[in-house]
Amino acid sequence: MSGQTTVLVTGGAGYIGAHAVLALGEAGYQAVVIDDLSTGRREAVPADVPFVHGNVGDPACLADVISQHGIRTVMHFAGSIVVPESVQAPLDYYRNNTLNSHTLIEACVRAGVERFIFSSTAAVYGIPDVLPIDEQSPTAPINPYGRSKLMTEWMLRDAAAAYGLRFIALRYFNVAGADPKGRAGQCSKAATHLIKIACEAAVGRREEIMLFGDDYPTRDGTCIRDYVHVSDLADAHIAALRHLERGGESNIFNCGYGHGYSVREVLDTVERFAGKPLSVKVVGRRAGDPPELIAVQKRIVSELGWSPRHDNLDTIVSSALAWERKLAGVTV
Ligand SMILES: NC(=O)c1ccc[n+]([C@@H]2O[C@H](COP(=O)([O-])OP(=O)(O)OC[C@H]3O[C@@H](n4cnc5c(N)ncnc54)[C@H](O)[C@@H]3O)[C@@H](O)[C@H]2O)c1
Ligand SMILES: O=c1ccn([C@@H]2O[C@H](COP(=O)(O)OP(=O)(O)O[C@H]3O[C@H](CO)[C@@H](O)[C@H](O)[C@H]3O)[C@@H](O)[C@H]2O)c(=O)[nH]1
User: Fold this and answer.
1) Where in the numbering of this chain does the NAD-dependent epimerase/dehydratase domain appear (predicted)?
2) Per-residue exposure over 223-250, b if at least 16 CB sit within 10 Å of its own CB, e if not
């Protein structure tokens, strides 16, 4: 019975992890969060969810939590996520994303954890030759962030073969939006994601938006991305968990909608919901930005039965803007 299962959620005080904790509660699971609060916020974790202020690189802490809560399933969100920072400080990224994941996987194997769900990324594909991107596309990450996450996929694959731990790696495309009920959203101190930045500008928290390049070979010259609503992504984790509980095999799944929007289309949508123009300055291309990233999502739909509820840019943008207004204390 799902009601008996307690899931250890690493990084559950962060943006995506907090939405997964809400989805777990709604699906009848108990969650326990471990988070070092390096970018997360304690308030993001509901009061009735046990919270451990700890690091996933600490094997003693992990062993305690796993045994104390009888953990058989782990969802691993904890990590460092800023691509340009990973270029500046690659060893920090390999430590936090790769070494600390190794410590966590090892603790899980030692304690007999059976199921492991991992936050991977479309960044493992690098700049793909063929679009849209399916899971068989070559993995060729172009930055330390993508490599640090791909190595964790490899560790999981090898640990699954050797020790019987079963895993699902979800390769997220561009995650955006906020909980439709306003309980969670993105809180980064130094935002880098387009929709977050545009919403900050819409509520007056930043003066202008830099648009990185309008000379790409796309329909309007700006980059195209497959934006996926964070609550749909949280649901994908529940679908992955149920698959593993049914005895399903380890696998890797893209998590996107299979279609995309350009930077200009996103900015137009934010302006429409904000009811005012944004100040947008076109600057040069940002290093390492592929012109277009679109998922083939057939595998997750057919094998996990994922059925997204918010596949709509208006829903993504309006929920992100509502959250930003809440953070800024703006009433509209
Ligand atoms: N946001 C995206 O667009 C995106 C896209 C693809 C993949 N991902 C992956 O999803 C996961 C979650 O990303 P997010 O956007 O919620 O980021 P986030 O920064 O909001 O959340 C990460 C959380 O992990 C915690 N954390 C970091 N290192 C830790 C450690 N060593 N021990 C314990 N806690 C630690 C942070 O305090 C934070 O609460 C990451 O693994 C990221 O690589 C995110
Ligand atoms: O201020 C900004 C921010 C972004 N962009 C552009 O908007 C698009 C989307 O950028 P961003 O929101 O930063 O997302 P990505 O760089 O596509 O990367 C995200 O999506 C990837 C998966 O596709 C994940 O691996 C990464 O972790 C996550 O940051 C890109 O063309 C950027 O150049 C701007 O023009 N101005």
Assistant:
1) 7-256
2) bbbbbbbbbbbbbbbbbbbebbeeeeeb
**40/35 Cα distance (integer angstroms):** 7
Pocket test for ligand 2, best of 263, 264, 281 (most atoms within 8 A of CB): 263
* Total of domains in the chain: 2
Domain range for 303 is 194-225+258-328
Asked if 173 and 122 touch (Cβ cutoff 8 Å), the reply is yes
- Please check whether residue 181 lies inside any domain of the structure: no
237 and 274 in a single domain? The answer is no
29 is catalytic: no
CA of 191 to the centre of ligand 2 (A): 11
Inform me whether the pLDDT recorded for 238 exceeds 60: yes
Q: Which two tokens stand for residue 149?
A: 């996450």
pLDDT for position 330: 67
Task: Tell whether 294 and 146 lie within a shared domain.
Answer: no
What tokens does 2 get? Answer: 């799902």
Rg of the chain (C-alpha set): 19
- Calpha distance 77→11 (Å, rounded): 5
Alpha helices, H only, 221-289: 230-245, 263-274
Matching residue, tokens 């880098």:
192
Average pLDDT over residues 151-176: 98
Residue 189 lies in a domain: no
Whole-number pLDDT of residue 287: 84
CA dist 250 and 304 (Å) reads 12
Question: Taking phi first (over 0 means left), then psi (-120 to 50 degrees means alpha), and beta for anything else, what does residue 9 get?
Answer: beta
ipTM comes to 0.97
- The ligand that comes nearest to the alpha carbon of residue 188 is 1
Residue 38 CB–ligand 1 contact under 6 Å: yes
Strand partners, 32: 8
Does 58 share its domain with 112? yes
